[in-house]
Amino acid sequence: MVRAIAVLCATTPAFAQQGTTLERVEITGSSIKRVQTEGATPVQTITRTEIERAGIVNAEQLLMRISANGTGADNLSSNVGIQLGTTDRNNNGNSSANLRGLGSSSTLVLLNGRRIAAHGAKGNSVDLNWIPMAAVERVEVLKDGASATYGTDAIGGVINFILRKDYAGFEAGGFVDVTEEGGGNIYRGSLLGGWGNLERDRFNVMASLAFDKQEKLGGTERSFSNGFQPARGLSPDTAGTPFATQTGVAGTAIGATYTLPTTGSQTYNRANLLSFQGNCDSIPGMSQYQSALWGAPGARFACAYDYGGSAVLIQPLERTNFVGRGAFAINPDTTAFVETVVGRSVATKQFEPYQITTNLATAYPVNGPYYQNLSAYIPSFDATKPIAYRWRCTDCGGRTIETTTDAYRVLAGLEGTLMKKWDYKIGLSTAESKAQSVLGEGYLFTAAMNAALASGVVNPWVPLGQSQPAAGMAALRGASAAGTRLFDGKSKTTELDGVISGELAQLPAGALSAAVGFDWRKESYAFSDGSTTTNPVFLAPFDPEFPKVSRDIKAVFAEVAVPVVKGLEATLAVRHDDYSDFGTTTNPKVSLKYMPVKQVLVRGSYNTGFRAPSFFQLYTAQALSQIPGNIADPELCPRGNVAGADLSVCAIRPNGLIGGNPALKPEESKQWTVGLVLSPTDWFTAAIDLWEIKRTNLIYQITPQQIIANYAQFGPSYIQRGTDGRIDGPGGFIRAGFVNADGDITRGTDLSLQATGKLAGATITGTFDGTYIDSHRTRIFSSQPYVETAGQWNSRDLFVRWKHQLGVTYTRGPWSSTVSQSYTSGYKDEKPVGTVPAGWNPKVDSYTVYNVSATYTGIKNLTITAGIKNLFDTDPPFTAHNLDFAAGAGWDPRVADPRGRAYTLRLNYVFF
């Protein structure tokens, strides 16, 4: 059986391409202009035609189809945005690239070969939603480190989005992508116009405007989004239900615990009327709490709520992008240009309704009209005392955050040749990304909500078929924080750069070429948090105020291509960067290309790289907060293991000091690639590249618990004892936050195949692009053994063993059609907490999706493309994970698309 795939991913050596115009161009990863056939590093090129045939609307969709891109929490469905990790929290509205799975901040994203501002929410990485895909001519993906050329962030590789230039005419396009089951539909409209020809008229102006919209897909709209599958090891671990569960608190009606005459001495600390009646599932989303699965016998009479299954699978998103460019040929050797790119995206993230846990101050009052007396089920129930409970406030609505991101870049530059032999370019640009998040329904002001709960007018036990009383709804609306500014952040970059390249001499084996350049940047970042500076909000994600900070970067770089002997070329590059806030770094790169015969190419490279600490990691304000759970004092507790000693030091809850670390050093890398490209015929090419990346000084967010667990490595300098000598005493705390950890090692193989042939007047092209992760090992301390994570479940990045794209395109006359396959291998699943049921499968299955499309150009000026995505309506594979600290309940959005089968139609008409 031939498994076919979209033509997206062939890393094909340029020497095997037919009909290539020998024009000197700059290839991503090198500063030397040269003819394309001279490329020495693996650069994957994806054309506009291929993007359109695949029904791709945005850069996020494109990155999901690149095998070298990691399987991490980088798309809008998997970017939880509320989790407690500082790096990800409040990162709303941001989609990121993540080559090699090394994190979005280790992938450099360029637009027309130059930097753009990082997303305003965190300043960690470029937001892919800003990329104007309707104006993209091609995308080049460098799967090798490039710090020697571009500086920071290029450890994992480089993605260069190259826009259309010198366009003359006017065209309009429309696109729809509609799911069969409903929800998650996508629409786009675009206009492109241009006037003038640089060679003939000495000028060209062009503009592109595009708008696309992605509709919401709710968790209840797909059956696989289901957090209650106890036979497979998946069940919600929460008693916060729409019909509230009473909780054990001393001084309340059920007390801290209770017993039942029928179960002997077993104590319980949860009680739900529906559980006693065997009717937990009578309320949508509720189920009997699986106390045996979780090893929690005290919750035997609680109900649970499938909060994961209620979460939004695809958040609604609207994007508007504008590109304007004007170029003027001052003379045959000099062209001046101005380019403006502006974008706005509005993303609406919705989480499950808030779970409210009351205490004595907010417990339901004895005289309340909805007081729930369980004395018929619990003999010890004391109806003279208030009720503490855990309630999922579905009446409050799902917690909603709307994030608007406005971004732009304005670039002015000159490019051309000097003395007919030296190519040069120089540019001045300014770029900015500003993100603002505003709370919607589901978030509540703390004081107003506490007052509403304590008043008794809110009924947490609304029976099936009834609704919250008017007085209760009025109290909830009065506590709503909808419209409150959660945060706004702004990232800005100003850059002046230039490069000149050309041939220095003609050697016996060929031309000796070189390039030199400079790069000056000023970067700044500011963050303002509204959720804590105004009226405190229930469980609103928070980050401290962040006054504007900035830094200057000065860099010089050089590159030389040396033809050693016939067929053997060495390229040497080096870059020196000087950062105003942490110092200097120098990074070299050497690459070799050997072509003994035209059918064989052997290539390899070695380079070092670095990633500068982000502003957030350096300068986030440090703050104290109590550590959840008990820990043991690493010094005093051992002394307590003697008769009469104070054992309280073995179960303490001290404060932890978390935040930025101005002493952070940049991450560093050493990496290599070795590759072989074979082109035995003029219609077939195969390429295989082995690679390894070793990072050190990895910036890691350490927790206070890890400080204690690794006390021998950290030592007493990370412990501040209080005036009484205890960590939990007055003035005591544990220092944590961002540190430079030891690092990780990632190793893998890329495989690419391409075949093109003629058959009965038609052209048939087959392509294959795959990435195998042999190993990803990581550790915090050099004294520790490495931990292997390839093929293992992880809450952030999944290092799945194998991903590929495979496809066949058939072209004859005005018709072309593509059949494609996307494949992601399975991995070892997250082990269920508590008792592992017999039905648990320790491995998540592989995920395979087929797509088809057809294009017709037989009508003058009109292009029609229709397609079916996910032809066989394949559901995402099951995983025993339920939302916490990673998105998805019973499925994983890092791996799979939840939309199911979808139908696409694209029309493009050229008016002139």
Describe the structure.
It is a single chain. By secondary structure, the protein is mainly beta. The protein has two domains: 14-219 and 315-351 and 401-445 and 480-622 and 659-702 and 736-910, TonB-dependent receptor, beta-barrel domain (Maltoporin, Chain A, Beta Barrel), CATH 2.40.170; 237-305 and 355-392 and 449-474, no CATH class. It is 7% helix and 45% strand. The chain has twelve helices and 46 strands. It has a 22-stranded antiparallel β-barrel. The chain has a five-stranded mixed β-sheet with strand order 3-7-8-5-6. Strands 14-13-21-20 form a four-stranded antiparallel β-sheet. Helix 7 (446-455) packs antiparallel against helix 8. The longest helix is centred in the middle third of the chain and has 10 residues, at 446-455. The radius of gyration is 30 Å and the shape is globular. Mean pLDDT is 89; it is low at 1-22. InterPro entries: Beta-barrel_TonB, Beta-barrel_TonB_sf, Plug_dom, Plug_dom_sf, TonB-dep_rcpt-like. Belongs to the TonB-dependent receptor family. Residues 403-871 form the TonB-dependent receptor-like beta-barrel domain.
